[in-house]
Amino acid sequence: MRLRYFAGAADAAGRDEQQVTGPITLGELRASLSAEHGPEFADVLGRCSLLVDGVRGADDVLVADSATVDVLPPFAGG
């Protein structure tokens, strides 16, 4: 699957994108990414929404290998 990191998530991961092999649940993906990128990223990821092909998903959602997952931290707006 294609992961796209935005804003603070990209900064913490040190990249804008990466490939991950699926299928995997979003909860398993969160745990795997936290272990891979370390505690700073895990802290940011804990505040992020994960969108699977544009739809926000819960941790039990199974993500297909062909999906795109966007990692979106909270944004301030006005």
Task: Characterise this structure.
- This protein is α+β, with helices and mostly antiparallel strands and 78 residues long.
- The protein has one domain: Ubiquitin-like (UB roll) (Roll).
- Helices cover 33% and strands 28% of the residues.
- The protein has helices at residues 7-13, 26-37, 39-45; strands at 2-5, 17-19, 24-25, 49-52, 55-56, 62-63, 68-72.
- Strands 2-1-7-4-5 form a 5-stranded mixed β-sheet.
Helix content: 25-40%
- Main sheet: strands, sense, barrel: 5 strands, mixed
- Uncertain residue ranges: none
CATH hierarchy class name: Alpha Beta
Count of the separate structural domains: 1
Instruction: Write the element-wise H/E pattern from the N-terminal end onward.
Output: EHEEHHEEEE
* Count of DSSP strands: 7
What radius of gyration results from the CA coordinates? 11 Å
CATH superfamily: Beta-grasp domain
User: Counting H and I runs of at least 4 residues, what is the number of helices?
Assistant: 3
Q: Average pLDDT value? A: 93
| CATH architecture label name | Roll
Briefly characterize the structure.
This protein is of the alpha+beta class and 78 residues long. It is 33% helix and 28% strand.
